[in-house]
Fold this protein.
Amino acid sequence: MKLTFETFELNTRHAFNIAREAGPPARRLVWVRVRDEDGVEGWGEASPQPFYGETADTVMAVMPRLARALEAAAEGDPFALERIDGVLHHALAHNGSARVAISAALHDLVGKKLGLPVWKLWGLDPVAAPSSFTIGIDSIDVMRQKVREAAAYSILKIKVGTPDDFEILTMIREEAPDKTIRVDANTGWTAKQAISAMPILADFGVEFVEQPLPAHDLAGLKLVRDNSPLPIIADESCATAEDVAKLAGVVDGVNIKLSKCGSLREAVRIAHAARAHGMSVMLGCMIESTLGIAAAVQVAPLVDYVDLDGAALLARDPFRGPGIEADGTLRFNTAPGLGVTEAGTAGNRE
Ligand SMILES: [Mg+2]
């Protein structure tokens, strides 16, 4: 099997800011392709996150090592997905976005060889909850504009953890009195701040709160949960299935992201581990193109809450395929594998 990789740039329509940092408008991602001996090619995307120690440069730097590990593990058989997964994880335990790009490419490849979408290979129904649409932190006027642009979406996700949270939520409720709203503090609060914010968020009709505290503050998260009228979902605290057990009894649910967990198979394992602990399951994303989102869509039938708007925030998407419609409804692929093609190629123009 031959693995090739190259960087590409994605631009968002708006600067995308969260509590921890201001996001740059342009991001570098990595497009990974795996070609087998029959010439069938699978694609995957790495959306590296500095929070998890990755950049496009680190992804590019580890790819040759992952390529060698893939070659050794696969022994020419792309269907050995579980074995390859384990070997890649052993080769580079971190570097989740680099590994998931290969995982996605292999699942795409085997789907194409069998003529089946990945969700169908897994025995899933192509049905999932609608996706939320995220409103990034900005001035109230710009955020108001973003809420208006998101009129078609029934669920909004609001980034909180700013001094203006109350004003932001007041504005959201003026603009969208009946929509479901979820908030994400991206580790931005202390336990005390979170506990005092919860009743106010409940009054605004917020459905749940994502990651109020720093990732490793599990005692604080439990304290917040024990004193919160709203469910708490762990995002930064939960990367892999192993984390789910630690979070049982601490939070109400976990947010799966492919670039955190490092493989499509691990994403499925997280969903099942969370179910085993009676926890709810959310599926999120980073700023990704349709190629990255397409891999997450395959997992979406397994979760309760979907947040796959990463490609909807882009000024231009280099890929076409499954993802979310303009109102947040999920669109599954009928084409095999991940069902992704390049945008703007011959016969495939918008
Ligand atoms: Mg989050």
